[in-house]
């Protein structure tokens, strides 16, 4: 376990192989719909290289809604109670104490070997509750920066399959991104033979 910045903690190998397998199976189901996994289109007309599916609330740049107006007009799948339990366990392990936590949305991103994510803040939530991030599959380079700018200072961390990363407190609104995925580094025993899955659990603060 390593504290990358105040409130930002990396816990390597947090998920067991069985938990990773289970999450991969669930992600395959969620990716089918009711709102299918897709490349998000940005207001600029650009298309994100990652593919995303959401639970509980549908995120699109830069708002959460229950219905995916930008995809197929359907309501996203429910956010399951067991995933909230996993999020609470993740926070307790990362912070070494029980923290009240009621995540109500998950953004699930799939990265193929070329996909990346630019430096950004997670700030469409109306809550400063921590973000819980789980990685499965290929290792990536995860860049965790500061709350002021997209640039330095930042810390580069390799997130491997099973790793947990939590950012809350003074780090909740830090810029972060994924400059690179390392193809072929994942263990096919997770059920994911290529690419990288990342699940972020969040509290939207919406009703
Ligand atoms: O893939 C990751 O590890 C980060 C994902 C992320 O930054 C996001 O979903 O906002």
Summarize the structure.
With 207 residues, the chain is an alpha+beta fold. It is 15% helix and 35% strand. β1 and β2 (8-11) form a beta hairpin.
Description:
The protein has helices spanning 17-32, 81-95, and strands at 2-5, 8-11, 38-41, 47-55, 58-60, 63-65, 105-111, 117-120, 131-137, 140-144, 155-159, 164-167, 176-181, 196-202. It has one domain: Jelly Rolls. The radius of gyration is 16 Å and the shape is globular. The model has no long low-confidence stretch (mean pLDDT 98). It is an alpha+beta fold and 207 residues long. It starts with a strand and ends in a 5-residue tail after the last strand. It contains two helices and 14 strands; from the N terminus they run ββαββββαββββββββ. Bound molecules: 2-oxoglutaric acid (AKG). 2-oxoglutaric acid binds next to strand 7, strand 13 and strand 14.
Task: Name the descriptors.
eight-stranded antiparallel β-sheet, 14 strands, alpha+beta, four-stranded antiparallel β-sheet, 15% helix, single chain, Jelly Rolls, binds 2-oxoglutaric acid, 207 residues
Overall SS class: alpha+beta
CATH topology: Jelly Rolls
Q: Give the SSE string.
A: EEHEEEEHEEEEEEEE
Outline the biggest β-sheet.
8 strands, antiparallel
Distance between the termini: 34 Å
Instruction: Bin the helical content.
Output: 10-25%
The CATH homologous superfamily name equals Alpha-ketoglutarate-dependent dioxygenase AlkB-like
Report strand %.
25-35%
What is the count of helical runs? 2
How are the strands of the biggest sheet laid out side by side? 1-2-12-9-14-7-4-3
Could you name the CATH class? Mainly Beta
* Alpha carbon gyration radius: 16 Å
Shape: globular
Please give the CATH architecture. Answer: Sandwich
User: What is the count of β-strands?
Assistant: 14
Low-confidence stretches: none
Q: Name the hetero compounds present.
A: 2-oxoglutaric acid
Tally of distinct domains: 1
On the 0 to 100 scale, the average pLDDT is 98
């Amino acid at each position: 376990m390593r504290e990358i910045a105040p409130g930002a903690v990396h816990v390597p190998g947090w998920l067991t192989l069985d938990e990773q397998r289970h999450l991969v199976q669930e992600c395959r189901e969620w990716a089918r719909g009711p709102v299918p996994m897709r490349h998000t289109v940005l207001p600029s007309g650009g298309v994100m290289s990652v593919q995303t599916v959401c639970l509980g609330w549908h995120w699109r740049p830069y708002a959460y809604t229950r219905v995916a107006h930008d995809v197929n007009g359907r309501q996203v799948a429910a956010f399951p109670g067991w995933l909230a339990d996993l999020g609470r366990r993740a926070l307790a392990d990362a912070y070494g104490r029980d923290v009240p936590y009621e995540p109500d949305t998950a953004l699930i991103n799939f990265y193929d070997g070329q996909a990346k994510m630019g430096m950004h803040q997670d700030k469409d939530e109306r809550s400063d509750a921590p973000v819980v991030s789980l990685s499965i599959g290929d290792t990536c380079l995860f860049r965790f920066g500061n709350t002021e700018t997209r640039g330095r200072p930042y810390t580069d961390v390799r997130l491997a399959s099973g790793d947990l990363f939590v950012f809350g407190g003074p780090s909740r609104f830090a810029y972060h991104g994924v400059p690179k995925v390392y193809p072929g580094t994942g263990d096919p025993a997770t059920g994911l033979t290529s690419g990288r899955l990342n699940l972020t659990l969040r509290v939207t603060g919406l009703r």
